[in-house]
Amino acid sequence: MDLMMFSAGLLTVMVSMAGGIFCIYKFWPHYNLELDVSRAFDQADYHTVIQLTQGKTNKLLPIDVYLHAARARMRLLQYYEALEWFESLLRHLDIKNKIRITVETEIADIHCALKDYTRAEMHYRTALSLAEEDPFANYKLASLLLNTGKPEPARQILRSLLKKNPLLAEARYLYAETLAVLGLYTKAIRHYGILNRAGEPILSFNYGRTLKALKNFERAAEVYRALLDSDNIEYKNQIIQEYAELCIILKNYEEGAHFIENALQHASDPQTILELRYMQASLFSKRGDEFQALIEYQHLYHENPDFKDLSPINDKWGYILAHKYLKYYFTSQVDIFEKLIMRMLPPGTIILRRSRQYYFCLYESKAYLMYRHILPAQARLVSEIDLLILQKCPNINLLEFWSLTGISEPYSTTGAEYRFLLYSKEEFLTHVKQIVNEIE
Question: I need a labelling partner for 428 at 20 to 30 A (CA). Which of 286, 317, 358, 404 fits?
Fold first, then answer.
């Protein structure tokens, strides 16, 4: 610090930094003010900072007073007053003063808070015009660009920043997020992995989406579940939908059903509710409650006929709902289904194989395939059962194949010595209806 002049009780100080003038201010009258303001700011007593600096924006004050006065107002969300203090400081700073970089960046932050993103971008770029490689300003600008739908320029800034500063974890995280937004999931997971190995916990919607896109479904579900358990999460509606979909993919049907039911009780966004109800119907179908799924699809169709594939579903399968007794056949409740089919088949029939897809039953020299889906069975199932009979039941002379909508494509057996009878459509409906009427 070089003493330049002392006159009439006023001390004028010139501070040299890196060969340039850092600041000139009239020191002595404001010495106590600077101490009081700094002390109050350090103690997070922002109201006192405001009281001490009220009405002084046009005076020549120490730099720290300007900065603390502006930042205290920022902390209390008094953004326009904070702007006045920062702009007043800029008027008193030399054009080459490095403090300008910080001030321009913080002004940009205020405009971001005010959602004036055009001005925010302008001030970030002004800061970078003073110091092109400033990491903080570059990071802030990239973050703004990403959040305003400009991921490609954000990617370019971050890639350049990381080449010069590879250890900046926040920049690498933002870079991974940007790559995920651009759909570059393989590249994104590499940078998420670098952060994970460095001990940086990753918890974001885009991380979960990246894992899901790369078919790491279990880990994606873990990330989404952790996000849902946290407070004030972004993308909450999307995460709810993604997690529900993952429950279906992972066949966690009971968890998925409970989750969707709970989410519907708390959801308020109409689109989210619609998506959840559609997934709820899909989940019913996947777990075997296909009749209930059709009921839900039809309800949705009447409310939103143009949503997704509701119209073709209703056109193709809506007729089934007229046969209400089918709810006992196309159900995931094993006890109900078994009670029905054991009444359909001869007394003494045994169940040789149970699955979500079909039941394979035996009675003396007869075999029965009870197909559990509304959609037609595939021809390869016939081949599978044919092989099963050859290996386990060579004395079978008749196979009855029960499928509401038949078999989807031409099929053939291997030439085994048994007859093949397909019961579908009206024969299927008539027999199921008769048995249900007897039970009820």
Answer: 286
